[in-house]
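Fill in residues.
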C-alpha cells in the first residue's frame, strides 16, 4: 500500500494514544468516554491505520514489510492486493536490473499472498539467474515450488533446466528441456536446440566415462570378419630354416586367422612376440597383426605403436602403411593419413589395397568423385576383389551418376554370382530409391547365398529385408521377425539391435526399445557409435519421464511424434 502524506503524523498520534491508554493491541480502549459504536469504530479505524503505517522496509518505496501478525489480521482481499502490489514492484525492479531488490519484493509477495502463486517463485528464480554469480541452487528450489503449483509452467521448466545444465546435472536438465519442448508442441526452435545440446553433452560425457572404464575387447565376429575381408588375402609367412618356438607360434596365429578364429589368433600372436621371433620380416608381420587386433579393440595408441615398429623393421610392408593411415583418420588427422598412402605407393605402386583403402577414406570425407577414381584404380590392378567393385558403384551413386552406378552393379552381380555382398548392397540402393519389390528380391537372393555357405552367416541382408518390409508396407511384425532371426544367428549384430529398437519405439514398446538401446551401447565399438546409441537411449528415457509426469499427454505425444 502507498502511504498518504500525513503518515508520519498518524504514526506519532497513534504512539501517543497507545502510551496514554496503556493498552495492548488486543485490548484497546478509547482514551475518553464514548458509546460502544464509538469504541468499535475507533478500534477498526486504529487497526487500519496501524496496518497502513508501521513496519516499512527502509528504502523500499514505502511498501509495508508485513510481519506474520500483520498478515494474520488482514482480509483475503487485502492480502491479494498487497501481493499484487509487491509483485508489480518486483517486476519494475527486475526491469531496472535491481535483482536483489526484486528478490525482496517477490519474497514479501510470497509471504503475504493468501493463495500460493507459481509466478512469484518463477520470477524470483529469474532474479537468482541474473545474480553474479547465478545462484542456481535457489533457482532450482524456486522452480520446484512453481512447478509443484503448475506443472505446465513453461518458464519455470526452462529456468530450472538451464540451472540444472549449469550445475552439470544433465539428465535432469534433459528431462525438463524435453518436457518444455513437448508441452510447446515442438514449436520452439530454442527448446529443440536445447534438447539437442544437452543430449549431445550427456551422451558424449557418458560415452567417455564408459570407454575409460570398459575392458578392451574384440568387436562382433561379423565386424571383425568384414575388416579382415577388406584386405586381399596373402600367403602365410615362410618360416626360416632354423625356426624358433616363437616362429612356430606366429605361424599358428596366421592359421587361426585364416580359420576366422580371431580370439585364438590374437592370443597366439601375443605369445609369439613374447617368445621371440627370429627374423625381421616375421616380427614385422607379427606386429602388423597384433596392431590390427588392437585397432579393432579401439586401443588406438597401442595399435599405432605396433604399426610404427612394424614399418621400422620392414618399410616395404604396404599393408602396415595403409593401417597406420586408418589410425591417423581415427585421430582426426587426414593429412597424415594421406601421407601414409603416398609412402605405401612409393614402396609398391601396384598394390591394389592402397587405392581401395584410400578410396574408403575419401568416401568417408564425402569426396565421392576422388573415391571412385581410387576404386577404379584398385579394380584395374585386381578385378577379383569384390569390394572395390561394390564401393565404386556406391560412390558413383553418391555422386549422382545413377546410370553408371546401376551399370557397375549389374556387371558386379554377373562377375560374382556366388557372393552375397553385391546383392545386398544393390538392394540397399534400390531401397533408397523406394523400389521396394526389387530391393526385397535382392535381399532374398543374398540371404539364400548366405544360407548355402558354411557358417557364420552374414545376417545384414535379413536386417535390410526387415527395413524394406517396414518402409514399404509398415509391416512391423514381419520386420521384427527378420531382425529377431538375425539376432538368433548373430547375437552381436548391432544393425539388428538398432533396428529393433526403432521398431519398438514405433509401436510404443518403450521398455523393449530401452533394452535394445542399452544393448546397442554395449555393442558399440567406437566412441561415436556409443554416443549415437546413448543419444537415442537418453532421449527415450526423457520421454518416459515426461509420460510419467504428464500421463494425460501420452496420447498427444504419440500423435505429435507420428506427425513429425
Amino acid at each position: 500500500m502507498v502511504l498518504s502524506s500525513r503518515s508520519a503524523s498518524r504514526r506519532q498520534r497513534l504512539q501517543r494514544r497507545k502510551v496514554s491508554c496503556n493498552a495492548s493491541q488486543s485490548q484497546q480502549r478509547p482514551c475518553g468516554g464514548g458509546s460502544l459504536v464509538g469504541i468499535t469504530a475507533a478500534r477498526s479505524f486504529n487497526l487500519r491505520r496501524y496496518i497502513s503505517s508501521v513496519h516499512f522496509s527502509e528504502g523500499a518505496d514505502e511498501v509495508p514489510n508485513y510481519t506474520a501478525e500483520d498478515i494474520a489480521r488482514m482480509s483475503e482481499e487485502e492480502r491479494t492486493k498487497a501481493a499484487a502490489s509487491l509483485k508489480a514492484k518486483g517486476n519494475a525492479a527486475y526491469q531496472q536490473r535491481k535483482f536483489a531488490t526484486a528478490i525482496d519484493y517477490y519474497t514479501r509477495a510470497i509471504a503475504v499472498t493468501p493463495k500460493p502463486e507459481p509466478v512469484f517463485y518463477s520470477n524470483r528464480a529469474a532474479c537468482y539467474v541474473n545474480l553474479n554469480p547465478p545462484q542456481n541452487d535457489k533457482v532450482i528450489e524456486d522452480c520446484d515450488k512453481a512447478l509443484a503449483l503448475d506443472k505446465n509452467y513453461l518458464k519455470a521448466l526452462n529456468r530450472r533446466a538451464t540451472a540444472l545444465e549449469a550445475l552439470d546435472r544433465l539428465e535432469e536438465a534433459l528431462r525438463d528441456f524435453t518436457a518444455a519442448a513437448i508441452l510447446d508442441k515442438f514449436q520452439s526452435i530454442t527448446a529443440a536446440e536445447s534438447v539437442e545440446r544437452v543430449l549431445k553433452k550427456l551422451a558424449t560425457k557418458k560415452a567417455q566415462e564408459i570407454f575409460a572404464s570398459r575392458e578392451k575387447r574384440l568387436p562382433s565376429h561379423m565386424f571383425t570378419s568384414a575388416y579382415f575381408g577388406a584386405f586381399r588375402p596373402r600367403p602365410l609367412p615362410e618360416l626360416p630354416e632354423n625356426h624358433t618356438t616363437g616362429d612356430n607360434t606366429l605361424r599358428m596365429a596366421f592359421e587361426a586367422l585364416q580359420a576366422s578364429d580371431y580370439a585364438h589368433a590374437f592370443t597366439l600372436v601375443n605369445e609369439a612376440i613374447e617368445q621371440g621371433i627370429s627374423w625381421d620380416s616375421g616380427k614385422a608381420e607379427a606386429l602388423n597383426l597384433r596392431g590390427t587386433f588392437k585397432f579393432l579393440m579401439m586401443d588406438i595408441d597401442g595399435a599405432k605403436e605396433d604399426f610404427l615398429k612394424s614399418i621400422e623393421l620392414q618399410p616395404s610392408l604396404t599393408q602396415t602403411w595403409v593401417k597406420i593411415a586408418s589410425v591417423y583418420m581415427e585421430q582426426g588427422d587426414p593429412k597424415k593419413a594421406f601421407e601414409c598412402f603416398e609412402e605405401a605407393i612409393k614402396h609398391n605402386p601396384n598394390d591394389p589395397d592402397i587405392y581401395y583403402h584410400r578410396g574408403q577414406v575419401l568416401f568417408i570425407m564425402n569426396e565421392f568423385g576422388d573415391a571412385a577414381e581410387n576404386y577404379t584404380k584398385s579394380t584395374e590392378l585386381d578385378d577379383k576383389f569384390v569390394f572395390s567393385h561394390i564401393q565404386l558403384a556406391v560412390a558413383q551413386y553418391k555422386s549422382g551418376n545413377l546410370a553408371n552406378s546401376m551399370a557397375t552393379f549389374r556387371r558386379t552381380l554377373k562377375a560374382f554370382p556366388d557372393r552375397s555382398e553385391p546383392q545386398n548392397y544393390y538392394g540397399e540402393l534400390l531401397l533408397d530409391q523406394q523400389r521396394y519389390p526389387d530391393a526385397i528380391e535382392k535381399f532374398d537372393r543374398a540371404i539364400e547365398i548366405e544360407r548355402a555357405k558354411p557358417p557364420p552367416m552374414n545376417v545384414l541382408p535379413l536386417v535390410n529385408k526387415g527395413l524394406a518390409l517396414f518402409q514399404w508396407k509398415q509391416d512391423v511384425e514381419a520386420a521384427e521377425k527378420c531382425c529377431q532371426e538375425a539376432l538368433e544367428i548373430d547375437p552381436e549384430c548391432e544393425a539388428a539391435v538398432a533396428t529393433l529398437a526403432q521398431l519398438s519405439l514405433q509401436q510404443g514398446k518403450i521398455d523393449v526399445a530401452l533394452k535394445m538401446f542399452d544393448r546397442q551401447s554395449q555393442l558399440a565399438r567406437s566412441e561415436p557409435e556409443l554416443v549415437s546409441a546413448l543419444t537415442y537411449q537418453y532421449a527415450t528415457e526423457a520421454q518416459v519421464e515426461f509420460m510419467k509426469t504428464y500421463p494425460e499427454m501420452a496420447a498427444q505425444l504419440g500423435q505429435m511424434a507420428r506427425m513429425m
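Residues 215 and 297 are 9 Å apart (CA to CA).
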